[in-house]
Amino acid sequence: MKDLRNLSKKRIELHEIQKYLNVKDYLELVKIITTLINDGVLKPIKRSKLNGKKPALHNRYSIIQEDEDNSKYVEELSYGLNIRLDKTYYMKNIEKYKKDRAFVLALSKFLDEKIELLKTQTSVNERSFQIWGREKFLGKEGGRRILKNLNLKEAFLNIYYTTEPLAYYSYHKNSPQKILIIENKDTFYSMRMKLIKYGGTIFGEEIATLIYGGGKNIYKTFKDFEFCVEPYLLDKSNEILYLGDLDYEGIIIYEGVHEIFKDNFTIKPFVKGYESMIDKYIKEKFVLPNTKIGQNRNIGELFIREFSKEYRKNIMNILESDKYIPQEILNISDF
Length: 335
Prior knowledge:
Layout: E1 11-13, H1 14-21, H2 26-38, E2 42-44, E3 60-63, H3 71-79, H4 88-92, H5 94-113, E4 122-123, H6 124-132, H7 137-140, H8 143-149, E5 159-160, E6 168-170, E7 178-182, H9 185-198, E8 201-202, E9 205-212, H10 218-223, H11 225-228, E10 239-243, H12 248-261, E11 266-269, H13 271-284, H14 309-320
Parallel strand pairs: 4-5, 7-9, 7-10, 10-11
Antiparallel strand pairs: 1-3, 2-3, 6-9, 8-9
């Protein structure tokens, strides 16, 4: 007789059982159903109605799967894995262990045979390939979940996360110098073109180096600033200026960049740049775009205090009217 447990379903209708087992005689069907219930293969769904025949049968049944022998997995967890791995979670969730087993065993083997490699700090993707032969597994494909299940901290693997290379252009390499961080790509390209063609002043400021920030991605990149730039940019006598969109988000980005650099460099907003954005908006009577919905508006005084009373008023009027000035209001002609 065919085994109903081979069907990929948990519940089954009476007529489906009859068809699957090819039983035409009803009394024979009753006998088979009774046997399957007694053998623990089927369980009547009591809230389903009886079929109205004699003897009566329920119209629907649950298919009870055989209990699988998991003793080999329990033994493997108990005695076969590296002692640094906490097996508690998987001992309580054997089915999940069976799904993750290949990855757990690969990690265990690495700790057994190559643990000395952890003495050298390695990028997350390189370490992932060392252990699992898949460079994205640790960062993006479930590696963190498996570490958590095994109560193993990422720090134990002695990894670091890489950032995007820093894009910058230097008109000259003397120190001290003024470095201008620009939030948006278009403004970075236009200013770079200006410096290349016409020299190193922008709005009367002697700017030697332009750095492309890239919006919120700036935080990760600048935390590795000392590894991304040449030594002349690390001179602590350099002054760092920042220019972004004139909106809440741009101001908050500046506050974050200030926090990163404040202990090693003098850092301020590029006041002349912002003033030029405001002056152009007023002079040419631009209709400003609306502030993006959901922006964090929790700004401090760090940015606004660098401006004169008149410009502070203009900035607050723009922000409080739910408008903003994008950097792109300026172009190479303005510079």
